[in-house]
Amino acid sequence: MTPTHQKKTFVHTTRGRVSLSSFCSPEDIETLAFKRAFGKHPHYNPIVSTKESLIRPAGGSDANVTIAATDDGDIVGFGILTYPAPGERWHRVGNQIMMEVAVIEISRPWRSMGLSAKILSMVLDHPLVEDRIFYMVGYSWTWDMEGSKMATMDYREMMIHLFSSFDFKVLQTNEPNVMLRPENLFMARIGRNISDDVRRRLKMVQFNMDL
């Protein structure tokens, strides 16, 4: 995406002002600080725990890395939308058809301030939104159950509520990692311009059927 697609807004929280910036470039992210708030905890290992893990996808085709940062330049939240790797199941639906909301993460001290929904809104504010299938895969072993103090099924319902507000729907799949635990889930938003043929391919890939 070009710089014209970038958007920036500010949110005032009880901990201070936070800027939300979409379509961040690797250079944008490089100037920010990524502190230990996203590091490993005894019972929680975040998907993204280094600044390099944000910089890498930011350089990808059509990717949208949205960053929440303090006025001091500390990253306190982020979201990543990117294409799946060629070896992943969802790549089989078609080249550059499906894009994954790979992560929405908020630093523990900055949670319960509405940042998740605002970041997700900016992540999905994409010029290709109606020409792609956006999806998310929720694995409970990536959730911060200790920090949230929630039961896994309650956390699952929270995720469903968050993504459903952006027109995502829960879809069934026999993908082994999703099936590994009952709380895991697969959700997708199918763009209005997606053809019937692509919709058919998605259903077949959901259940690992030959195309």
Give the arrangement of secondary structure elements.
Layout (H helix, E strand, L loop, with lengths): L7 E6 L2 E6 L4 H5 L21 H7 L5 E7 L4 E8 L15 E9 L8 H10 L8 E6 L6 H4 L3 H13 L4 E2 L5 H4 L5 E6 L5 H11 L5
Parallel strand pairs: 5-6
Antiparallel strand pairs: 1-2, 2-3, 3-4, 4-5, 6-8, 7-8
Describe this structure in words.
With 211 residues, the chain is an alpha+beta fold. It has a single domain, classed as Gcn5-related N-acetyltransferase (GNAT) (Aminopeptidase, 3-Layer(aba) Sandwich). The chain is 26% helix and 24% strand. The chain has helices spanning 26-30, 52-58, 115-124, 145-148, 152-164, 176-179, 196-206; strands at 8-13, 16-21, 64-70, 75-82, 98-106, 133-138, 169-170, 185-190. Strands 1-2-3-4-5-6-8-7 form an eight-stranded mixed sheet. The longest helix has 13 residues, at 152-164.
